[in-house]
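User: Look at the shape:
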Amino acid sequence: MKNILIILSLIFFCLFNAQHLEKTARKINEEGIELYRSEMASWYGTDVFIANYKARENIGGYFSYIDNKVPKCILFSKENKVLATIAFPANYNPKDAKLDITERDFTPVEKDYFTIRQKALERTKTDTIFKHYQNTSLNIVPIIRNNVKKVYVLTGPSISNVVVFGNDYLLTFTNKNEIKTVEKLHNSMIVQNINDEKTGKTVSGVHSHVIENWQAITPTDICTLMLYQKFTGWEGYTTVSKKLVSIWNPNNNLVIMKTEDFKNMSENILKNKKEKSQQEKMEP
């Protein structure tokens, strides 16, 4: 009876861990997709606006958010008034964007996005935790989900043929829009070439995570992979840490498993391949 209880406990423990990692993967993936949708709206929204607005000296900045499932990019003036609203369909085709160049005040929701965005921007200029590298810029992405206010800061390259991971940060806010925490998501900046001089076009990539609180792939990793997928054509991507291995593919499927389990699985696959190869050699 004692042995049966031990076995049942082990089965329950394994199922619990699997469900926990699945839940973690789903949460990270959803947040990464939200970041991606916001950044896509910003990428194309600013282009649409500049093509239709000549008084560029009036522009104070921009941010994007999801309004009832519709991605919107907001351009605001130096006097903190909305200059334009650009709404996008699911395909983010600039030709299908709805441009409204009507100067107005922020809505209450937009005011929250604007406030945390501006406070994050100021913090990046004064806090030494933020690093600034040549040929890159810090992109500030405010996210409000389930009444939780966050700002992600990603590093974007200003040169072609590279994808940048790392040098990214997360700021969390109180309900009163005051900064609560600031943390790094990666220990350094990782630059991967899309086309390598020696090997040609890359088909996938991998990098490691060493920060204790960010052992799994990050929402910023997911966002970056999705943003650059049309340029890279990568078939998948992997992050590895002491505790976890995360595997992502372009179909937005994300699997997270314990590093120990991943190693055992890999060893078994290699063992099976070796045994199969030996068996084929022995066949007449």
